[in-house]
Amino acid sequence: MPEKLIREKLHLPSNGDKLLLHSCCAPCSAELMEALLESKIDFTIFFYNPNIHPRQEYEIRKNENIKFARKMNIPFVDADYDTSNWFARVKGLEFEPEKGARCSACFNMRFERTALYAHEHGFRTIVSSLGISRWKDMDQVNECGAKAAARYEGMTYWTYNWRKKGGSARMYEISKREEFYQQEYCGCVYSLRDTNMYRVSKGLARIEIGKKFYQS
Q: Among candidates 183, 175, 189, 174, which has minimal Cα distance to 96?
């Protein structure tokens, strides 16, 4: 078996007994889900992503995640799509670049809600699938996650590097195997705007919501 396919045995930090996994989409979270199941870690998926735009895109990504969670028999929490609060949080940051201050504000909002749910439902450890994507700054994701967890005594944000030992490669392999819906923008209206500007500059068509995009 190729080295990249070998997963190490995972253990929750701080002797945690169950995990709340913030999932941004099925393509990013599937590797985490399979790895956690393989290590027999008790976890629940928390889907809170009011940044995703438009609503059609949000529903497609959410339903794709629900479908895979049901297939794997994993509990799934469908949180609010409170876009008005998201726009309020990122007001004034509309032209920040990817991995900039707008992304931090977005992560903070999503992780704060994740940590609150974890606190209210007895989860001592939280994590997010956002860090596995090469398009995200892992240190930025972890910093925001740790800050959200620090609001509650005894809670930990798990800073495990999901990209290592073939994690990123398996993420793409699983996406192709499951024929997940994917898009080439992270999700928000501003990333959609900037991605479309880039595509047009290269003579490419704008993103078509609902049409799969497979990245290499």
A: 189
Contact in structure between 6 and 165 (CB atoms under 8 Å): yes
Buried b (16+ CB within 10 A) or exposed e, 67-88: ebbeeeebebbebebebeebee
Which tokens go with 123?
Answer: 């989860």
CA distance 155 to 147: 10
Residue range 188-209: mean pLDDT, rounded: 95
Q: What pTM does this model have?
A: 0.93
Sorted by sequence, the CB contacts under 8 Å of residue 74 that are 6+ apart come out as 33, 37, 43, 44, 45
Q: Which two tokens stand for residue 155?
A: 């809670």
Q: What is the pLDDT of residue 165?
A: 84
Query: How far, in Å, are 8, 36, 81, 101 from residue 44 at the CA level?
Result: 21, 10, 19, 29
Strand order across the beta sheet in which 156-157 lies: 76-78, 43-47, 19-22, 125-128, 156-157
The class of domain 16-181 in CATH terms is: alpha beta
